[in-house]
Amino acid sequence: MKSISNNFKLASLIFSITLWGFISSCSDDNPPLPDNLSTFASAQLGLADDETELDVKIQLTRAATMDIPLTVSLVTNGVTYGTEFTTEPAVTSGSLSLTLTKGSSEVSFKVKKADGILLDGDENITFTIASAGSPVLVGEQNQLVLSFAEILSTGATMTIAGGGATYPNQVFIDLSANRQVSVLRTSWDLGFYMGDDFKVVVNSTTAMMARAIDKNDLTTVTADDTVGFAKEESISAFNPDAMAWIDDPAGDLSKTAIASISLTDAENKVYIINRGSGIGNPAPSRGWKKVRIIRNGSGYTLQHADIASTTFSEIQITKDDTYLFKHVSFENGAVEVEPAKDKWDISWSYFTNTTVSGSSTIPYAFQDLILQNRYEIQTAKVLTSAVTYANFAESDLASLTFSSSQIGIGADWRRTSPSPAIVYDDRFYVINDADGNYFKLKFNSILTDGVRGTPQFEYALVKKGS
After folding, report:
1. Assessment of whether the complete model's pTM goes beyond 0.85
2. Residue 70: strand pairing partners
3. Rounded Cα gap, residues 379 and 175, in angstroms
4. How wide is the angle at C-alpha 25 spanned by C-alphas 23 and 28, nearest 5°?
5. With 50 as the cut, is the pLDDT of residue 1 above it?
6. Exposed site from 34, 36, 63, 271, fewest CB < 10 Å?
7. What is the rounded distance in angstroms from the CA atom of residue 157 to the CA atom of residue 444?
């Protein structure tokens, strides 16, 4: 009996250890998620003299699993609500009530400056995230000071509002203003150059391609003109010939998929456009279009239609030197995408770059790619073996070699294979902006809770422009 009892105890002990190991294993496979925090996207913003309103963003660590109410209080200095400024939504009982909708990771409100007011520039508003609905918590960066004057940021830590794992957004970042603007990357199709030349770019954030055919009348183009295109004109075809149907990833406007728009109408060919992929997993096809672009005085006329259509629609694009490009959607006409050309430095997005396959170079879609503004922005890489980020100073600028390539940073800051994706910690970057300011910038993370789509970086002013 004693032997049986001992055996029973031993079996019970083994069972308990096995059960505990099983429970621990399950727990390790499904660790609890970190707190979901609500924070301001920036701790300091400025509303310049020539700006009438500003969007203020609040971000979550990850997308909300339900609608989340947020309350934002405000304290004014030198301005009065309803006299010098208002907000949208309106302030009631001394605070703003916002709702961050299920599936979203950010919400915003507007601050609007009243018409015809005169300000000294030392006025400001301090906004505070007063409360967040469960299970969201208020994070450490819960205050924002909005000045009624243009600021020159001396540095900050920023989480890019990319939108998460399906990378839905294209995000434009202005370091000197400590500001980011995000737009849905599928919200546009073509970008029209606002400079002296007549250039048109395709939406490389959706893997769009454009292929000329030997016709210049949209009404005569049929499906017979596109036989075989579906297999050839696609990012997933791994086709070396497709290099001619994408824009140069480095941003050289002499190497765009669509040729310069000629003053002679007959020289402007029809292009068959594969609009690339939409947002989702799997990502849906955005379909095909036929387009033709001609000059309209100092502007452009875009003609577009579905492949089988015997008629077409027209959109007029007027040049505006405030911007580097103005953008058009086939569905919605003129749309706002890029900020003014001197109001952003770098952008983050999904993007059509190139890679080597065998002995050929092919178009390839990259996630988490950093582009620099083609308007007077330069970047340089610094290896920490030469000087650390913390120690880098104005005296180190003279030794740098700067690049004007649109992909000067590109994908160089991160490694994505083997998994998990990581940020290289042996390098950082220096950015020279359009106002002559120099900033050092390093990336701190590419993953949030193990998911790509909201990377984080920090930056600091090294030298102020003259």
Report:
1. yes
2. 98, 132
3. 13
4. 110
5. no
6. 34
7. 9
Domain end call among 335, 356, 376: 335
25 and 114 within one domain: no
- Tell me, what amino acid is at 87? T
Please indicate, yes or no, whether residues 429 and 294 belong to a single structural domain of this protein. Answer: no
Q: Which of 283, 317, 335 is a domain's end point? A: 335
Phi-psi region of 424 (alpha: psi -120 to 50; beta: other; left: phi over 0): beta
Print the SS3 string covering the chain: CHHHHHHHHHHHHHHHHHHHHHHHHHHHHCCCCCCCEEEECCCEEECCCCCCEEEEEEEECCCCCCCEEEEEEEEEECCCECCCEEEECCCECCEEEEEECCCCCEEEEEEEECCCCCCCCCCEEEEEEEEECCCCEECCCCEEEEECCCCCCCEEEEECCCCCCCCCEEEEEECCCCEEEEEECCCCCEEEECCCCCCEEECHHHCCEEEEECCCCHHHCCHHHHCCHHHHCCHHHCCHHHHHHCCCCCCCHHHCCCCCCCCCHHHCCEEEEECCECCCCCCCECCEEEEEEEEECCEEEEEEECCCCCCCEEEEECCCCCCCEEEEECCCEEECCCCCCCCCCEEEEEEEEEEEECCEEEEEEEEEEEEECCCCCEEEEEECCCCCCCCCCHHHHHHCCCECCCCCCECCCEECCCCCCEECCCEEEEEECCCCCEEEEEEEEEEECCEEEEEEEEEEEEECCC
Q: Which residue range forms the structural domain that includes residue 258? A: 190-335
Residues 323 and 352 grouped into a single domain: no
- Place 33 in a pLDDT band, splitting at 50, 70 and 90: confident
Same domain, 344 and 292: no
Q: Which two tokens stand for residue 40?
A: 């301001």
**Short-list 95, 88, 42, CA closest to 69:** 95
Q: How far apart are CA 53 and CA 115, in angstroms?
A: 11
- 255-300, pLDDT tens digit by residue? 999 999 999 999 999 999 999 999 999 999 999 999 999 999 999 9
